[in-house]
Each structure stands twice: as structure tokens, then as C-alpha cells.
């Protein structure tokens, strides 16, 4: 299952946005209002939305000023969440890509909530 958000403009340089997102503490500001739990881990973070199980993310890849990719810490639900960053003069643009390997039943159940989740992250980055 592949989900994406539209590219949005951010009032930060690509370097500033990359540095902001490299500090996992800052993801708490981007989370939806219905976040029940948020904790920093050794190389990522975990969170839970109301009525949903806890999701643990770990750093998978970083390419300075252009990409940060987080992966699921659970082998049971393998996925990546990637933020793609592009420099646009003195500002930047960004979008989120979600790629998961789920069976068709799980995909059908989680597609809408996951799209809403990554849309919220994207919208909250735009407000920075």
C-alpha cells in the first residue's frame, strides 16, 4: 500500500526543515490532536492515537537536507514513512510517502486513517 501527501510549501529552508525533523521531539508538535501517547526512543519515537495500538518508528535513512525515512519497529506490520524535502530558494517544499506491506484486509481497514494521519503531519508542517 502506497500513500502520499501533496507537496506543501514550508517557510523554512530545506536545511532548517531537515534539522527540525531530525529531532524526533519535534514530531510531537506535528501529531494529530487525538494523540494519546508520545515517547522518544533511542533512535526514533512511539505514539498512540486514541483507539489505536501503539506504533513505534525508528530511523531508517537520512539524506541531509532532502530525506528522512522512518520504519516500523514491528516486523508484523512492515512500513516506511518518508519525508521528502526540496529546496525552493529561501524556503522548502515537503511531502510524506507511506509504503506498507499489508494483506488486503488490513490495507482496507487502515488506508483511510493512515491517509488522514499523514495529511495531518503535512498540514502541521506547513504551519511551522
Describe the structure.
It is a single chain. With 128 residues, this protein is of the alpha+beta class. The chain has a single domain, classed as START domain (Alpha-D-Glucose-1,6-Bisphosphate, Chain A, domain 4, 2-Layer Sandwich). Helices cover 28% and strands 42% of the residues. It has 3 helices and 8 strands; from the N terminus they run E-E-H-H-E-E-E-E-E-E-H. It has helices at residues 14-22, 27-30, 104-126; strands at residues 2-4, 8-10, 35-41, 44-49, 55-63, 67-72, 79-88, 91-100. Strands 1, 2, 3, 4, 5, 6, 7 and 8 form an 8-stranded antiparallel β-sheet that branches. A hairpin with a 2-residue loop joins strand 7 and strand 8 (91-100). The chain is globular and about 45 Å long. The relative contact order is 0.25.
Q: Which structural traits does this protein have?
A:
single chain, 128 residues, alpha+beta, Alpha-D-Glucose-1,6-Bisphosphate, Chain A, domain 4, eight-stranded antiparallel beta sheet, 3 helices, 28% helix, 42% strand, globular
Topology readout:
Elements: E1 2-4, E2 8-10, H1 14-22, H2 27-30, E3 35-41, E4 44-49, E5 55-63, E6 67-72, E7 79-88, E8 91-100, H3 104-126
Antiparallel strand pairs: 1-8, 2-8, 3-4, 4-5, 5-6, 6-7, 7-8
Amino acid at each position: 500500500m502506497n500513500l502520499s501527501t501533496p507537496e506543501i510549501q514550508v517557510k523554512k529552508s530545506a536545511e532548517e526543515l531537515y534539522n527540525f525533523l531530525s529531532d524526533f521531539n519535534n514530531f510531537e508538535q506535528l501529531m494529530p490532536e487525538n494523540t494519546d501517547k508520545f515517547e522518544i526512543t533511542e533512535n526514533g519515537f512511539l505514539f498512540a492515537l486514541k483507539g489505536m495500538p501503539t506504533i513505534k518508528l525508528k530511523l531508517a535513512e537520512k539524506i541531509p537536507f532532502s530525506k528522512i525515512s522512518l520504519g516500523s519497529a514491528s516486523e508484523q506490520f512492515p512500513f516506511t514513512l518518508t519525508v521528502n524535502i526540496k529546496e525552493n530558494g529561501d524556503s522548502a517544499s515537503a511531502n510524506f510517502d507511506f509504503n506498507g506491506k499489508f494483506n488486503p484486509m488490513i490495507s482496507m481497514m487502515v488506508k483511510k486513517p493512515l491517509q488522514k494521519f499523514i495529511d495531518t503531519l503535512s498540514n502541521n508542517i506547513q504551519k511551522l
